[in-house]
């Protein structure tokens, strides 16, 4: 099997594992389930991922590694904070509209075993990226560029506004949209309201 075929199979395994974790949860998904869904045997699966935890890291990494480094780079830019929020939202909306099950997967793992999720994030050094973002925000609050707002309030406001439409996608589509294909446009429209609420939360005046 060539390198390209290896990479394609590894990608297929990760995507399949992600779907099973979403459907059944990490604890209820076995390596045999993943192998059967992919159409390979257990030894082949173990060649790529020796344990289910390694598999979970790969799934989690495939989601977060495409996003958090970009967020970290954006937050460091010398731009008004709301402009950085706009760029960060572009990254999130793109990722989540292409992969709408990701918020459900993350929320499911938060409820199932937060310690396991945190341990995985720490092993992959995602906590350091969040620390950079937190420290940058606190610095700008101390210098008066932003209002002093509890970080947990910023976190809940941003992620609450961002993730609810994704978690309620089926409901919103059924009530407000003609077709599921219209959902990305709805998210782009909603992005402007997220920016509006974040500006009201963080700026001393609406002009920033």
Automatic annotation (TrEMBL):
> Which stretches make up the HTH tetR-type domain?
7-67
| PROSITE patterns, A to Z | HTH_TETR_1, HTH_TETR_2
GO terms for MF: DNA binding
Question: Is Iron-sulfur among the key words of this record?
Answer: no
> Organism's domain of life?
Bacteria
Q: Is Nucleotidyltransferase among this UniProt entry's keywords?
A: no
Q: What is this protein called?
A: TetR/AcrR family transcriptional regulator
Alphabetically sorted, this entry's keywords are:
DNA-binding, Transcription, Transcription regulation
Pfam families listed in its UniProt record: TetR_N
Question: Which regions of the protein are recorded as binding DNA?
Answer: 30-49
């Amino acid at each position: 099997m060539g390198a390209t075929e290896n990479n394609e199979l590894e990608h297929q395994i990760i995507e399949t594992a992600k779907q099973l974790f979403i459907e059944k949860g990490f604890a209820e998904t076995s390596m045999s389930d993943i192998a059967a869904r992919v159409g390979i045997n257990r030894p082949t699966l173990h060649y790529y991922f020796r344990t289910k935890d390694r598999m979970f890291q790969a799934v989690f990494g495939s989601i977060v590694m495409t996003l958090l480094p970009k967020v970290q780079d954006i937050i460091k830019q010398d731009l008004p904070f709301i402009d950085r929020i706009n760029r960060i939202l572009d990254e999130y909306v793109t990722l989540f509209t292409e992969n709408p099950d990701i918020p459900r997967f993350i929320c499911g793992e938060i409820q199932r075993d937060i310690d396991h999720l945190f341990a995985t994030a720490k092993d992959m050094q995602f906590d350091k990226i969040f620390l950079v973002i937190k420290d940058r925000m606190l610095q700008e609050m101390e210098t008066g560029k932003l209002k002093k707002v509890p970080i947990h309030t910023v976190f809940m406001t941003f992620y609450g506004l961002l993730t609810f439409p994704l978690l309620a996608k089926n409901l919103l589509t059924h009530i407000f949209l003609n077709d599921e294909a219209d959902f990305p446009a709805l998210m782009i429209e909603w992005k402007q309201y997220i920016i509006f609420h974040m500006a009201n939360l963080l700026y001393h005046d609406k002009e920033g």
